Amino acid sequence: MTTPIVSIVGKSNSGKTTLVEKLIPELIKRGYRVATIKHNKHGFDIDHEGKDSWRHKKAGACTTVIACPTRVALIEDIDHDHSLGEIRDKYIKGADVILAEGYKGNPFPKIEVFRSELKRELLCGNEDNLLAIAADVKLDVGVPCFDINDIKSIADLIENKFLK
Questions:
Q1: Can you tell me the distance from the alpha carbon of 5 to that of 83, in angstroms, rounded to the nearest whole number?
Q2: Is 115 exposed, middle or buried (0-12, 13-18, 19+ CB in 10 A)?
Q3: Strand pairing partners for 34?
Q4: What is the pLDDT of residues 89-103, one digit of tens each?
Q5: Percent of the chain as helix, strand, coil, to the nearest 5
Q6: Which pairing describes strands 63-67 and 110-114: parallel, antiparallel, or unpaired?
Q7: What's the Rg (C-alpha) of the chain?
Q8: What structural domains does the chain harbor?
Q9: Torsion sign over Cα 11, 15, 17, 20
Q10: 105-156 tens-digit pLDDT
């Protein structure tokens, strides 16, 4: 069975990371293994100048793996921005569900985080595979709208739709 992906999307500073951070332990408490994928369009660096792994990459290695008794990290050159499906299929093993933060243009079901104080429009509509809204106000847009702090109900939705 293919691991389901649920994207948590929203405008900058809407609370996407906080929602993911609260959903992870709630889903784990229910017995599920949760993986996450975070998209950063600006790039990132876990491989710091001067460190051995950085030196390996600088010398020309196309892939470098850093391992210790409790974690493994992979640094791999890629030729394109991988889709969520590609990342899932290539790198994620043993998870029951994947929570993706960002990737607003993907085809997977989305929960949009909305804060009225930001005075911005919603990013998604039903045509964007919008599953629900997590907001600080009640919105009527044709999908369930949960209070942004009602983690149990949002986890119920994910569990009932993708995990049972």
A1: 12
A2: middle
A3: 97
A4: 999 999 999 999 988
A5: 30, 25, 45
A6: unpaired
A7: 18
A8: 5-40+80-163 (3.40.50.300)
A9: negative
A10: 899 999 999 999 988 889 998 789 999 999 999 999 999 999 999 999 999 9
